[in-house]
Amino acid sequence: MYLHLIRSINDPEHPLSLEELNVVEQLRVNVVDHENSVSVAFTPTIPHCSMATLIGLSIKVKLLRSLPARFKVDVHITPGTHASENAVNKQLADKERVAAALENSHLLEVVNQCLSERL
Amino acid sequence: MAADMRLLGLVEEFVSGLQDGAAKDLATGVIDGKCTALEIVEALGKCLTNSEPRIRSRGIQLLSQVLLLSYSSLKQREVEALAIFYIDRLKDHYIITPYVLQGLKALSMSSVLPEGLAVTMLKALFQEVHVQSLMQSDRHSVYTIISNLMDTREQELKSLAADFTFGFIQAMDGEKDPRNLLMAFQISRDIIVNNYELGNFVEEFFEITSCYFPIDFTPPPNDPHGISQEELVLSLRSVLTATPRFAEFLLPLLIEKLDSDVQSAKVDSLRTLTTCCRNYRKKELKEFLPALWHSIRREVFQTASEKVEAEGLAALQALSTSLSKSVIDSDAEDSLDAFLNNVLQDCKHHLCEPDMKLVWPSAKLLQAAASASYRACSKINSCIFPLLLEQFNKHKQSSQRWTILGILKIFIKLIQKWDRDEEDENPLCAFKDQLCVLVFSALTDSSVQLQMVGTSTLAVLASQQDLLSSSDIELSVDHLNRLILQEADPQVCAAALEASTIISAIQPSAFITKMVPALMQDLNTERMEVKDDGEPLAPSGNALHQRSIQALAAISTHPSIVKRTVPVLLQHLTNLQKGTSGNESDMAILICQSLQLVAEHCRGAEESSQYFHQMVVPCLLGLAIQTAVQDCASEIRLGILCEEQVITAFGTVISTAYSDGETERASRTISQIVALYLDGDVSSLPENNLCRKFQPFQSPDSPWPQTQLIALLQAAVCSLPKNIIVPQQERLLERLMELACTSDHRFTYTSAAKCIAGLINKYPAGEQLDSVLQDVLKKIDSGLERNAGVCAQATSRTRVFTLLLWLTKSLVLRYHSLAATLTDKLIQLLTDPELGTEAADGFSVLVSDSSDVLNKATHADIRIMYRQRFFTENVPKLVQGFHSASEDNKSNYLKALSHVLNSLPKQVLMTELPSLLTLLLEALSCSDQVVQLSTLGCLHPLLLDATQTMSLHVDTLVNKLLNLTSSPAMKVRIASLQCMHALTKLPPHVILPHKPRVIQALAKPLDDKKRLVRKEAVRARGEWFLLGSPGS
């Protein structure tokens, strides 16, 4: 039910959305309302996709902006679909690193571009 | 002599003094006959022969300017002398040429230019002037001269033969300015269309115009000349397609440009091809047909653009049409036949391929080729039908069958496009049996999609003249019966109803013998809901009855059917009274809707309409009156026919019947109805042995079941066209007034008020109307007066208010002079402690369309733009009233205002709203949800379009909008969040200071319990996050 929030995020390298690229799918989104938890697994287009961290970050940021503060948001790579799966997951789970990343104005710019409503 | 001196003075002033105004004075002199052009030449004398070219040019400039203003007053002798002079001047210094051209332009417009001079002029022009080295405006002069002379001296120019064409080719060769090109294209087209000799220059002529094809021109921003790409494209196309002699050059060019990657070039090429095919025949086309077909096919098969596809199909149709018009030589082959063979060969195998990838494009191509002519259609059909029939049987999957049947349907439809001779057999006859089997198998398929397309194909097939036999039709009706009465899917059922409507108009008898009895039987069977659980998919008994009722209306397309269906519906309506299931009133309303549909079908059909008037209207009245009269006698349960909504439904049927334009019939029966209500004359009713008298106007004694039937009287008398005069109108109005002011029954007095309003709206203007209105006004005034201490007053004032409201609407619509007085009364009532809220809501009645009276369908007198007028007249008053009102009443003003604002189109509002802005902002704090919602609706477009004005109030806006995001009403929450989203469109420096606060505040609606609210909150918050961030 929360897929509609992230389906329209643009891919940093394509003119297509994450849903159109099958990066995010309904069945990999898990929401437990009473436990206040949201978990999204995304599948990078290729195992060596260099943008995986950025995509994960975009999803995370979008959810943080769109969900009530009570939710704990977990974004990770679908197991077995990326070469450096663990490293990326660790980065995305680390609050400090996410916050630090968003203070980098260049990175924020790319993330915002992914999140802009397409005309 | 004095005149001469003055002349010399003016000339001197212009040439040496560089005063341009002198030219105008001189021109006025020439026009008034005070001096002549030749005198000016004389006065110019020396400066025309001066050795300094600058002086000479100044002299010529003066003369040309004078001539441009005064050419119509020149005499032939003068024109001759001047023309010879100017032609000679063409040889002079180049800085003089522009002014010489202006002079020649002036002379070319003179109607007395002597014969022969036009030719000399042009010869000299072509010889002495190198057009393309001139400035744009001077080149424009050249084209103007040529065009002027072509308009008036066509015969003389033609004596130049091909030299003229050649001269023009040289003149325009290399032209680049769009303004000049438009002119040059126009001249080129005239040369061709008016049969100027092209001689050996056909190819050259084509080259100098076709080099611009395809035109790619983007007008500069703020272009004052307003030339569009479209204009140039059309103008060039009209040159290129003007003559078949260009065919051998044009067609290869088009084929080449179709290869282009630019979409606009493709579209332009295809459109040009479509246009030129109108003039081309086999002779021109033959050589290029294979290449053209190849290109078109490629475009249709491969393109991703619908536009290119559509143009490609149009071009193919044009080609096929042009070949169909070509004369068939006795010896040569039939080019249409050969071409279509080619098309068929390339498309056929795609229809047979199992993956069906190119099926639709191929079908579209074939269809385009076939729609050119009857001959093309027969040729393609004879080949395509056996093929498609075979394919249908070969494919077993319903999705593939669905595709094939869809294609078949289109080809069947295509045949109807041409009139056949009587004796010609329908070309489909050979395939009829197969088609029927195929369609019927689709109708029994389990796939909904296939059933739907099967139903619509059946409709197309049955509308073909003399194709299906009567047994085929009967079988079809059996299938439709099954789909309507047994099919679970509502879409299929709707498709079946639609098909029944189409077929019944052509084949009424099968529907009378087969469908009507089946539906009747269904209506008469009482089903217990529980019985159905064996078959969970089948529609329940109640839903089935509804379908039968709808079906009866759907097939009432032919008088003979109407006579069968209407009695069934009426009988069922009568039976409903005895029903006990609890949903009778819904069913009664449904029957009324069906009857109304039948009434609409009947319009314009004399026989059915007559029948409807004789049968339905008296029967409905009879039923209603019988119930009303008997109920109070027997004190038993009140029947469904006393319910307000059922009576309203009755009213819509009667209203539809009487709004029909047929004057004579309506005026005959209307007097019976009026007599029925005024005098209790029941002779016109079908069963008139009533147990009691029908006296609706015997107020206050008459009981409400009787008086509320005024609604039916209103439906009849207020729906009449304007030219029918309601009998006993004055008496009727009087009784209605009485009822409206005395009845205690809300539905009764509202209906009476509406009825008065409806009659007054159409009342012819004049003294009589004024006196009626004066009486009414007096009653209203005394009725509205407040007497403290009288308890029963509240109802009586509401009654009078209702009357006032409807009467105001009636007068506002027709721009009556009293409308303003009445509206003012309503505005005053906004501060009334009892009626204030009702008055505020009343404004929505004034400005919105009402469903039963005072609308277009009932022929009311409605002036255009009455809402705008009402707006400009009354909004200032409302605003003023708002400012001076006490706190308790402010919301009433706001509500009234918001009703008026909401009724106007947004683009009209945009100009008025900024002045109302402070008021709107205040309205956001009003506690009334209707006011809040409509205010938000007004603010939203303003936020997007009037950013400057809105920026001034950003603090207030942010505060108030954020407050509203926690409103208890979902719609208000959504609208306020939408406005919050729109706020981000204001200039960044204005809104950025609010960003942290807004983002924090918008976190709350993210957790709203309604999904739609959350959605808007996410949109708005996301947009606010992006504000001022890099990358947004």
Automatic annotation (TrEMBL), chain A:
<dbReference type="Pfam" id="PF01883">
    <property type="entry name" value="FeS_assembly_P"/>
</dbReference>
<comment type="similarity">
    <text>Belongs to the MIP18 family.</text>
</comment>
<protein>
    <recommendedName>
        <fullName>Cytosolic iron-sulfur assembly component 2B</fullName>
    </recommendedName>
</protein>
<dbReference type="InterPro" id="IPR002744">
    <property type="entry name" value="MIP18-like"/>
</dbReference>
<keyword id="KW-0159">Chromosome partition</keyword>
<comment type="function">
    <text>Component of the cytosolic iron-sulfur protein assembly (CIA) complex, a multiprotein complex that mediates the incorporation of iron-sulfur cluster into extramitochondrial Fe/S proteins. As a CIA complex component and in collaboration with CIAO1 and MMS19, binds to and facilitates the assembly of most cytosolic-nuclear Fe/S proteins. As part of the mitotic spindle-associated MMXD complex it plays a role in chromosome segregation, probably by facilitating iron-sulfur cluster assembly into ERCC2/XPD.</text>
</comment>
<dbReference type="InterPro" id="IPR039796">
    <property type="entry name" value="MIP18"/>
</dbReference>
<dbReference type="GO" id="GO:0097361">
    <property type="term" value="C:cytosolic [4Fe-4S] assembly targeting complex"/>
</dbReference>
<dbReference type="InterPro" id="IPR034904">
    <property type="entry name" value="FSCA_dom_sf"/>
</dbReference>
<feature type="domain" description="MIP18 family-like">
    <location>
        <begin position="5"/>
        <end position="76"/>
    </location>
</feature>
<dbReference type="GO" id="GO:0007059">
    <property type="term" value="P:chromosome segregation"/>
</dbReference>
<comment type="subunit">
    <text>Component of the CIA complex. Component of the MMXD complex, which includes CIAO1, ERCC2, CIAO2B, MMS19 and SLC25A5. Interacts with CIAO1, ERCC2 and MMS19; the interactions are direct. Interacts with KIF4A; the interaction facilitates the transfer of Fe-S clusters to KIF4A to ensure proper localization of KIF4A to the mitotic machinery. Interacts with CCDC117; the interaction is direct.</text>
</comment>
<dbReference type="GO" id="GO:0051604">
    <property type="term" value="P:protein maturation"/>
</dbReference>
From TrEMBL, chain B:
<dbReference type="GO" id="GO:0016226">
    <property type="term" value="P:iron-sulfur cluster assembly"/>
</dbReference>
<keyword id="KW-0539">Nucleus</keyword>
<dbReference type="GO" id="GO:0006281">
    <property type="term" value="P:DNA repair"/>
</dbReference>
<feature type="domain" description="MMS19 C-terminal">
    <location>
        <begin position="550"/>
        <end position="984"/>
    </location>
</feature>
<feature type="domain" description="MMS19 N-terminal">
    <location>
        <begin position="41"/>
        <end position="302"/>
    </location>
</feature>
<dbReference type="InterPro" id="IPR016024">
    <property type="entry name" value="ARM-type_fold"/>
</dbReference>
<dbReference type="GO" id="GO:0005634">
    <property type="term" value="C:nucleus"/>
</dbReference>
<dbReference type="InterPro" id="IPR029240">
    <property type="entry name" value="MMS19_N"/>
</dbReference>
<dbReference type="GO" id="GO:0051604">
    <property type="term" value="P:protein maturation"/>
</dbReference>
<dbReference type="GO" id="GO:0097361">
    <property type="term" value="C:cytosolic [4Fe-4S] assembly targeting complex"/>
</dbReference>
<keyword id="KW-0227">DNA damage</keyword>
<comment type="subunit">
    <text>Component of the CIA complex.</text>
</comment>
<keyword id="KW-0234">DNA repair</keyword>
<dbReference type="Pfam" id="PF12460">
    <property type="entry name" value="MMS19_C"/>
</dbReference>
<keyword id="KW-0963">Cytoplasm</keyword>
<comment type="function">
    <text>Key component of the cytosolic iron-sulfur protein assembly (CIA) complex, a multiprotein complex that mediates the incorporation of iron-sulfur cluster into apoproteins specifically involved in DNA metabolism and genomic integrity. In the CIA complex, MMS19 acts as an adapter between early-acting CIA components and a subset of cellular target iron-sulfur proteins.</text>
</comment>
<comment type="similarity">
    <text>Belongs to the MET18/MMS19 family.</text>
</comment>
<keyword id="KW-0206">Cytoskeleton</keyword>
<dbReference type="InterPro" id="IPR024687">
    <property type="entry name" value="MMS19_C"/>
</dbReference>
<dbReference type="InterPro" id="IPR011989">
    <property type="entry name" value="ARM-like"/>
</dbReference>
<protein>
    <recommendedName>
        <fullName>MMS19 nucleotide excision repair protein</fullName>
    </recommendedName>
</protein>
<keyword id="KW-0677">Repeat</keyword>
